[in-house]
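Task: sequence in, structure out. Protein: Asparaginase.
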Amino acid sequence: MAPMTTSTTPASSSPRVLPRIAVLATGGTIAGSAADSAQTAGYQAGVVGVDKLLAAVPGIAHVARIDAEQVASIDSKDMPLTLWATLAERVNALLASDDVDGLVITHGTDTLEETAYLLHLVVKSAKPVVLTAAMRPSSALSADGPLNLLGAVTVAASPAARGQGVLVAFNNRIHSARDIVKTSTYAVDAFQSPEIGALGWVQDGRVEFQRGVVRPHTSGAPFVIGEVANGWPGVEIITSYAGATRTMVDALVAAGVRGIVVAGTGNGSIHSALQAALADAVNKGVAVVRSSRVGSGHVMRNGAASDDALGFVSAGTLNPYKARVLLMLALAAGKADAAQLQQIFDTY
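Result:
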């Protein structure tokens, strides 16, 4: 797809009917609070309700008509798979209504990239879905949540966001759910899209996209949340490192996992002892996907020299955590053959 530049700016004077945006709150730092306003680490996540989050952004009423729901109040490090299913089903139900023009989800930063990518694959609508979050709790000096929430609603209300899949609006930038990664433990620009960069930006009511999303997503993806909601395939992540042994692989196989994602070194390379154990796992029917522990780049398929012979799958540009999401969905859809899985990873 060719680079694109699209923008929307609110009308300055003529009356208009504002778009209706559903806001689903799940907790996280954006809904966190601490007794000391100078404290940005020792706080309790998910304790501030969605009504208070919206009240901290008075200008939001000039952007959209808001319908808010409190879906959960958790620290996203504790995100359960059952909540993923609940959230995805609620998103699809809301977007199926003619009364809803777009949707925003407030989320914790720890697992935001995983939730966003899951929704990118199972939401079945072209209407905008935008996740946002915060690095500082709502009680902090210079809290970043209100501006991020305003930006997310502005993006969700923009016609330019339609058909772009699930997006993340954070620190004035707009990212694709597939590309975005958390890259800092403390900075307010903690989310980036390594290698590829942001899709565009949002500021002062203006939304601009510099490029579009190329890979299939949402209605263009075959994955259905109902296929996994009642039984997520067991998929775990292990890491390759100096002195790695086969202990973890053997334990996971014995526990009955259906898939293993390896966070390999460099180009997804794997310690020889670990590789032997993973080859044995494949022979026992476990799907193995090679990703990388490196923060950017892609994992090249090794072909006949390694992957074909061992039955491994390359994650491509997906990091281990997103590769796990895709592998769970693929296995739930009945795709367990290495060739089938490789095609899926090459496509989505």
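Confidence is low (pLDDT under 50) at residues 5-12.
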